[in-house]
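Backbone-to-sequence.
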């Protein structure tokens, strides 16, 4: 079990304005470019500040601020690898690692809709390209968006309505 101090702070879904929603709450933590690019770099094995700065193109002051926020938010942990001067590596926590499907889905969408030629593709050990597909964990079948439905969680957000946030 991971150290509880390294986990994101849990909060009510209605903490952000608008419809009570886990998507909005998630975006309040990871909804800006540098955070997700840092997660990308850490998931690719680039753990040192200079590697992350070079690979993301983030200005050093912004990168420092984002890494601090991600550490206090429970997405990354910092580990000292040198004492004089003190230097640190950054590693994804379990919560940070769980962002991988989000990044993979964004890459897949960008490959399909935004770029002429995908700059990189990922293959499984079987040799086939990896695809992000919504799957029911109970039935083990791929889920079509038309088959999805939002279920009102009365015990959590009684004011929630599919067509109106209030």
């Amino acid at each position: 079990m991971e150290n509880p101090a390294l986990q994101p702070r849990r909060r009510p879904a209605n903490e952000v304005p608008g419809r009570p929603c886990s998507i909005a709450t998630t975006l309040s933590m990871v909804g800006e470019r540098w955070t997700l690019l840092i997660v990308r770099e850490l998931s690719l094995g680039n753990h040192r500040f200079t590697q992350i700065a070079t690979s993301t193109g983030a200005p050093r002051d912004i990168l420092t601020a984002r890494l601090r926020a991600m550490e206090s938010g429970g997405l990354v942990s910092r580990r000292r690898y040198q004492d004089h001067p003190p230097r640190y590596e950054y590693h994804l926590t379990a919560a940070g690692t769980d962002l991988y499907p989000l990044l993979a889905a964004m890459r897949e969408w960008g490959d399909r809709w935004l770029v002429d030629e995908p700059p990189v593709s990922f293959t499984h050990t079987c040799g086939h390209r990896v695809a992000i597909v919504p799957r029911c964990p109970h039935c083990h079948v791929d889920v079509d968006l038309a088959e999805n439905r939002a279920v009102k969680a009365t015990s959590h957000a009684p004011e929630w309505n599919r067509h109106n946030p209030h």
